[in-house]
Amino acid sequence: MPAGTLFIPGGSTYTSMDVDDHAEELASTLGVDKAEVKSDLENLVEYSVPVDEAKQSIRRKYGSDADDGAMPSTKDVDAVEVSDGNVTVTVRVITVGCRTIQYQGDEQVIREGILADETGTISYTAWQDFGFEPGDSVTIGNAGVREWDGQPELNIGQSSTVAVETDSVSVAEHDLPCSIGGHTSLLELRPGNRGRVVDVEVVEIEERVINGRDGQTTIHSGVIADESGRLPFTDWEARSTLSSGETFRFDDVYIREFRGAPQVNLSTFTTVEPLSKSIAINKDAQRVAIGEAVDSGGVFDVEVTGTVLEVREGSGLIERCPECNRALQGGQCREHGTVEGEDDMRVKAIVDDGTGAVTAILDRELTESVYGGSMDEAMTVARDAMDKSVIAEEIRSRIVGREYRIRGNLSVDEYGANLEATEFDRTDDDPATRAQSVLEEVTSWVLLRIVVKLHIDSSQLNLRMRHYHTQQVTMNGRQSMWWHQLVGELIDCLLLGH
User: Fold this and answer.
1) Residue 391 three-state SS
2) Span 186-274: which CATH code?
3) d(CA 229, CA 286)
4) What are the domain boundaries of the chain?
5) Rounded distance, CA 471 to CA 466, Å?
6) Given this chain, do its domains 73-175 and 186-274 carry the same CATH topology?
């Protein structure tokens, strides 16, 4: 970002000159110190308050309610544009989520969610509690408009008005991102969602201590599941009521991106209600093509099937830093320098399914399984050979060129796509049989095209096919079936024009 530019979350920017001009105008109108006005204006703008609304707040602060802006226009939701400045809309409240932000050194509670009418949906941020709840129909006057994630978003502040409508506002419910009230399945959640409600079973949970903004903080993290799938979660309040195997309703959760996949977060505003019903959780992972999974940017608990093309360097026996658990390179940790490494095993295998490729990372347990022995046994073999690389070579000989079903958590970053495997199972599919099947499909299509082109008599073609069906040609220890020769002859006929 160029020097002298003030960033407005959501995509808007104002240069220092812009802020300076607004501050000078306000200071002149209000008869107050420009430096103080400029400081107030910068604080408001930094927290995503539209500049017009920020100026109005400053006018009220210094005792002036004058507004130099035009009257807000009344619009349908789908007609609202970032350039509108201020608008009035009549809408249905779909979701309401609460969170706190730091504003001028103090904590402030804001409300966020989705509004809708017959024409579409729009997100909003309310800087105070206007009292509306999901399902309410309201007219919001003088709402500011800003850009957020490339789309218009309404900012409802002190200069806005909210009036409850007696008639319910119609919405296209089939186009809503969730039901009215925010109830959503885990598979439908996306980073940025707020005010959502989920019914889940806690599958895994652990207590951790992290270094937070206010020092060391105890949190709970783990995995939750419903009928649609599984997602990681974090409870920032470390509620003692949560336990593995129990079902709960989490009301007012927000979703962040964690390693490319959605993560469910419970805040101080989240209510947790035990459920008396059981949930038929989906124990199967999403099965997708590798290309689709990589294009999504990250998937939690996914299953792919592909062929191992290569075992990368850094596989087999390795050492890790005791402080950060990173793999050491030549006894060096890139964060902590020279350390006494801790022994470990892993595999980094490039897997391809024809739609894309991913690096599957196997932990010690899975690596011991594909190696066929324990880490202690592998270390003994390496010592006898005086070479750790023999373990990686043995693993290569066992898995390269073979097809595996891999389950785990996929993430994508600037270095590529990685799949942290939780399961790594060889399929029953034989590569030669699979290749033959693919070639048969292609051959069938080629035969059809050639037969049409040459007008070969069907009885003559059947005689040739029976003739070649009795022959087999061995190439590199593998058998190439009769149709290899048949296709070759037919293509020659096509090329020669007879």
Assistant:
1) helix
2) 2.40.50.140
3) 8
4) 5-61, 73-175, 186-274, 286-426, 431-496
5) 9
6) yes
Is 269 strand, coil or helix? coil
CA distance 160 to 92: 17
**Quick one: tokens of 233?**
């979660």
pLDDT digits (tens, 9 = 90+) for 239-293: 999 999 999 999 999 999 988 889 999 999 999 999 999 999 988 898 999 999 9
Residue 308: both structure tokens together: 């191992």
DSSP lists the bridge partners of residue 212 as: 215
CA 365, 368, 370, 372 dihedral sign is: negative
Q: How many Cβ atoms from other residues are within 10 Å of residue 413's Cβ?
A: 11
For strands 403-413 and 416-426, give the pairing.
antiparallel
> 297: which residues sit within 8 A by CB, 6+ positions away?
260, 412
**Closest by alpha carbon to 9, among 166, 150, 207, 194?**
150
Contact 9, 45 (CB under 8 A): no
What span, in angstroms and rounded, lies between the C-alpha atoms of 465 and 456? 12
pLDDT tens for each residue of 428-449:
866 666 666 656 666 666 666 6
Instruction: Write down the CATH superfamily of domain 73-175.
Output: Nucleic acid-binding proteins (2.40.50.140)
Q: Which residue has the higher pLDDT, 38 or 480?
A: 38
User: Which of 14-23, 194-203, 362-371 is predicted least confidently?
Assistant: 14-23
CB burial class (10 A; 0-12, 13-18, 19+) of residue 181?
Answer: middle
The rounded distance, in Å, linking the Cα atoms of 126 and 267 is 18
Q: Which tokens sit at 137?
A: 């129909």
Query: Where does 286-426 sit in CATH, by number?
Result: 2.40.50.140
